[in-house]
Amino acid sequence: MSMDAIHYGVGRWLHILSGMMWVGLLYYFNFVQVEALRRAAADTPPTNAGIMRHVVPRALAYFRYAALATVAMGFWLLADRAPDVLLFRVRAYIPIGIGAWLGLIMFFNVWVLIWPNQKKVLGLVAASDDEKARARRVAFLASRTNTMLSIPMLFFMVGSGGMFRASLF
Amino acid sequence: MKNPLDSLWGTVIAGLVLTAVLYLLARSAMGG
């Protein structure tokens, strides 16, 4: 197997595999967990404690490390073309550049906005009730922003090899 | 005004609109 086959074959496979875990868990949080936790907290007595204790930390761990793996594999794929892609120096790279920037914004949201605020919500770091309420809102909005950004991100990731090409397949 | 990200449909529609806007921008930047 040639080095190119490993780079683009195995690299793309691992990039998409980790990306599926990342965005899959993102969709789980947004389409399933937020509403489920709201309903569980409204039960009498509340039934959300088990989810918060056993599900959320585990899901968040796979979520943030899948994000890290996705970005790492993405940079491996771009390799020495990363500056041309990220600085939009080459016209043909514009679609993948847009996809890469959307992915990087999402990665920033995961590690800088979602995870530090979720640590307060989960009680892994000390926080007052007010700080927890604010942290919950920031993490929620960052997560919803990522759900929104995932739609064009995937379009441009797929489009760079699809509808932006002169000939399909 | 209500934040569209507070609703799932608002989030999905905002994502689709952003996709369309970025697509037009990309096509224009690539020379149509």
Please give a structural write-up.
The complex is a heterodimer of chains A (169) and B (32). By secondary structure, chain A is an all-alpha fold. Chain A has one domain (3-159). Helices cover 80% and strands 0% of the residues of chain A. In chain A, α1 (3-42) packs antiparallel against α2 (49-78), α1 (3-42) packs antiparallel against α5 and α2 (49-78) packs antiparallel against α4 (94-122). In chain B, 69% of the residues lie in helices and 0% in strands. Chain B has 1 helix and no strands. Chain B is elongated, with a radius of gyration of 13 Å. The relative contact order of chain B is 0.13. The interface between A and B is medium-sized, with 21 and 17 residues.
Give a concise summary.
Chain A contains five helices and no strands. Chain A is mainly α. The longest helix of chain A has 40 residues, at 3-42.
Shape descriptor of chain B: elongated
Average pLDDT level of chain B = 94
The sequence of SSEs of chain B as H and E is H
Largest sheet of chain B: none
Distinctive features:
heterodimer; A: 169 residues; mainly alpha; 0% strand; B: 32 residues; 1 helix
Structural topology:
The complex is a heterodimer of chains A (169) and B (32).
Chain A (H helix, E strand, L loop, with lengths): L2 H40 L6 H30 L3 H5 L7 H29 L6 H31 L10
Helix pairs in contact in A: 1-2, 1-5, 2-4, 4-5
Chain B lengths: L7 H22 L3
